[in-house]
Amino acid sequence: MRKGFKFSPPQVLVMGFAIIILAGAFLLMLPISSATGESLPFIDAFFTATSATCVTGLVVRDTGVYFSTFGQVVIMLLIQVGGIGFMTMATLFSLVFKRKISLKDRLLLQEAMNQNTMEGIVRLIRKVLLYSVVIESCSALIFAIRLAFDMPLGRALYFGIFHAVSFFNNAGFDLFGDYRSLTSYVADPVMNLVSMFLIVSGGLGFIVLSDLIELRRRRKMSLHSKVVLSMTGSLIVIGALVIFIFEFSNSKTLEPLSWSGKIWGSLFQSVTPRTAGANSLDIGALRQASQFFIIILMFIGASPSSTGGGIKTTTFTILVGAVFSMIRGRSDLVLFRYRLAEERIFKAVTITMLSLFLVIFVAMLLSTTEDASFLSILFEATSAFGTVGLTMGLTGKLTVMGKVIISLTMFAGRLGPLTLAYALGPKKEKELYRHPEGKMIIG
Question: Which segments cross the bilayer (predicted)?
């Protein structure tokens, strides 16, 4: 009997996302997907399907103008599947049809949700599905009520559903047309609050959401949730202050707005680089200092087990904590009275270095294929890696090779460089010996 191929969980995830992207590209190429009935070229369909499945939001065609309702629904479904993960969707069907979740399925779910153990993984998936439905439904209703003042009720409801799915999954796709995103609602409290709530809740991660919801009953929060909440809050506040200061006198962004508009604009533009992709200020009109600062925020990204990308807030926290521990002469990294294992620190450094090399390499490639300033190229590369979707205007001008490079970068960013390395690298083997310890001078 011939032995079948065995794939590791990272390899299954890579192949699963690739299949979904190709299927989405095929659907978007159909004439029914465009408003004019024309067939979308494969490279543009592939780029759009990759951007949607990898919940990025970079677009080469105006979603609200070029695509028909069918095409927009395909994009929305790709965003939903890509955001919560295709293994989560597969588990949903298994639960509906009362099929047993096998050990292999649990291993895949563990890898997809970036968990250290399989314990309680199916229970976590149930929570993921429940939280997604509740948060998206309530937000879609509020969006619809607000947008009903600007458009017919049916269209407002459709817009509400699409943008609730897009923003909660940190995708950044919008239907407002002319690549405007939320610039028309820069000072609107309802649109800002609901959008930021969706972006932050999707970016916190389902483990943190579960901890917050069950806090009253459990009266205890995990170390992971404490780190994510503290770092997320800090980055949002610091980001809003920096953008407010840099853009306060910029006549193309904050200066024409009222004080409330300036605050809403700064706050929203601090939240959205956490891999959301929506914008209420013209990114291309921001000062270079603000644009570079947003690059840093996009590189950090959201949190583990979330719908966002980047190196993740926990990774950044470990790096910062390790630096301060070394400065203070301490051998252990302690966060909230818990000591972190060296393995966690090594993993954080590995993820950061792989991500940094990837962004630099992509920026170098784009510098040879695209005719644009280096800052806009670096911004595009980081946005694609962090699955953010913000752009300084380069996306629509990309060459065919540039579209391919950005598509592959979005794919790598969604899965994570470490997952791709595990999937493409040789199988891990147990080390039977250790080398003698050596010493070298550092710094």
Answer: 12-30, 73-97, 128-149, 193-215, 227-246, 292-324, 345-366, 372-392
